[in-house]
Amino acid sequence: MSHAAIAAPSRRTAYLPRNKKRILCVFPAYSPSFGTFEHAFPLMGVRAFMPPQGILLVAAYMPASWEVRFIDENIRPARMSDYQWADAVIASGMHIQRRQINQIGDLAHRWGKITAVGGPSVSGCPEYYPDFDLIHIGELGDATDQLIEYIDLHSERPAAQIRLETKERLPLERFPIPAYEQIDLNHYMMGTVQFSSGCPYACEFCDIPALYGRNPRLKTPEQVLAELDTMLRSGNPGAVYFVDDNFIGNRRAVAELLPHLIDWQKRNGYPIQFACEATLNIAQSPKLLEMMREAYFCTVFCGIETPEPEALKSISKTHNLSMPILEAIRVLNSYGMEVVSGIILGFDTDTPQTAERLLEFIRLSQLPMLTINLLHALPRTPLWNRLAQEGRIVDLDGRESNVDFKMPYDEVMAMWRRCITTVYSPEYLYERFAYNCEHTYPNRIALPNSPQRTSWDNILKGITILSNILLKIGILGDYRETFWKMALPALQSGRIEELIHIALVGHHLITFARQCAAGQEEASFYSQKVEAAT
User: Fold this and answer.
1) Are 77 and 116 contained in the same domain?
2) Residue 472 CB-density burial (10 A; 0-12 exposed, 13-18 middle, 19+ buried)
3) pLDDT digits 0-9 by tens, 68-107
4) Mind telling me which GO cellular component terms the entry cites (predicted)?
5) Is the domain of 369 the same as that of 247?
6) Do 244 and 382 share a domain, yes or no?
């Protein structure tokens, strides 16, 4: 990883520093979980899932005269020499990284360094970080300039914590390109790009409206293309995820962006496939779906949450009922898009029959991948406010959720464990992938054999991944018989990319589910129980 000073992009802080400073930006490691895909890393030869957009953006926003060093601890930990080098240390992350964030602050303080923390966790819960010198609440904006000014003018830690809260957010069209030159993108499973911030909906359990607003803010299409160009100069993982809270939060803006993405893909020989997160009612926008297909969007994450209508009404997610859920999934599949679903157990409307209804929904929908998660109340959500008033927020060691469920806790846990182990048994998972091989993947556009796709680097990468898969799953794996039922026909018909996709994703899901069955993984991806023990 490069330790050179960042080359100046077109947009930085408006503050003009008086002094030269060295800034260490550290992103903490994730604990293993469903969404980090760590079990696929050895097969791919990568070290982490996605580069962290937020802190790379902060690194790029620093004054041009300052030296900035970025370290993603999912790639390698910050060393003593990194802390000694720095004048100030900036950390960022989510609630699940709370312990690691505070550990970064403690290590920096051992060397007397000024510490600052920003990002979604401290913005939602400043009280989680009592020992940091500067806490940055909110998005990039005037508070960021104030933070930079403080670091510029001070060499010693403040006597008490200073709280900086963004009042004027920097418009997204003025965001700098994230500091991709500080990373090797080939170390990551996929790249990331942001087009919008915020979501127009107000689901009860979600903190996005409180953190980022309900009126999506936007970058320009030209910005997105510039980021893609810059990203590819740092490597090409083959896939890029739009990390927008809701990619179709502003449908008119997306309709303006997509022709630019199509043109970019054609000019560059379709070097990557896109993925995004969107509400399920995207299925009612055929013009958008056709353009997304042409831009080579292959995966859409939809927060289905539950197939039960009464539960959706109770959590203010009635937009999932604007058309039958199974029909919406079929529509997305018809445009070549594999649907990944968010599922939550533990709603007040759940009954002992909920698990059976969920398993039947999975059978009918043929969704290969679902994030089956226990309900967890996040601060600054309507759910937290309601449960706090009802005295149903609990903080007990050993619990996987902070919610006092209406059903007995042990029954909810058993329901979760039954669902996740059933859904990710090798035979059942590969059966659902087989459906998508027949009904989803053939609906994607035919890609050109462009130099960008058939480069020697890409060919060597594909051969290496395929060899690892054939050895570690096809020969040494304990579900190799199930694997070969899929792999042999795919090899014979030349569907190598499908084989690799199914094997990588499937191996992570199968391994994760087995660890869940053994009590080694958390039932809520916000749980601190396993995170704190790791």
Assistant:
1) yes
2) middle
3) 999 999 999 999 999 999 999 999 999 989 999 999 999 9
4) cytosol
5) yes
6) yes
Dig out the tokens for 488 from the structure: 């042999």
C-beta neighbour count of 293 within 10 angstroms: 19
- The 3-state secondary structure of 448-515 reads CCCCCCCCHHHHHHHHHHHHHHHHHHHHCCCCHHHHHHHHHHHHHHCCHHHHHHHHHHHHHHHHHHHH
Query: Comparing C-alpha atoms, which of 122, 94, 123, 113 is closest to residue 33?
Result: 94
User: What CATH number is given to the structural domain containing 276?
Assistant: 3.20.20.70
Quote the distance between the C-alpha of residue 388 and its chain's center.
Answer: 28
Contact 521, 508 (CB under 8 A): no
pLDDT of the residue at 382:
95
Categorise residue 205: left if φ over 0, alpha if ψ from -120 to 50, beta otherwise.
Answer: alpha
Pairing mode of beta strands 338-345, 297-305? parallel
Most confident of the ranges 201-210, 229-238, 283-292: 283-292
Q: pLDDT-derived band of residue 4, with 50, 70 and 90 as boundaries?
A: very low
Is residue 517 very low, low, confident or very high in pLDDT (cuts 50, 70, 90)?
A: confident
- The answer, as to whether pTM is greater than 0.90, is yes
* Residue 200 placed within a domain: yes
∠ CA 308-312-318, nearest 5°, is: 125
Residue 264 inside a domain? The answer is yes
Here the tokens at position 26 are 């550290």
Q: Give the start-end residues of each E strand in 56-215.
A: 67-72, 88-92, 114-118, 134-137, 162-165, 191-193, 196-197
Higher pLDDT, 520 or 506: 506
Instruction: Examine residue 54 and state whether it is found in any structural domain, yes or no.
Output: yes
Count of the separate structural domains present in the chain: 2
Task: Write out the residue range of the structural domain in which residue 132 sits.
Answer: 22-165
Query: Does some domain include residue 342?
Result: yes
Q: What is the CATH number of the domain that holds 76?
A: 3.40.50
> For residue 222, which of 180, 259, 250 has the smallest C-alpha distance?
259
**pLDDT, average across residues 344-365:** 97
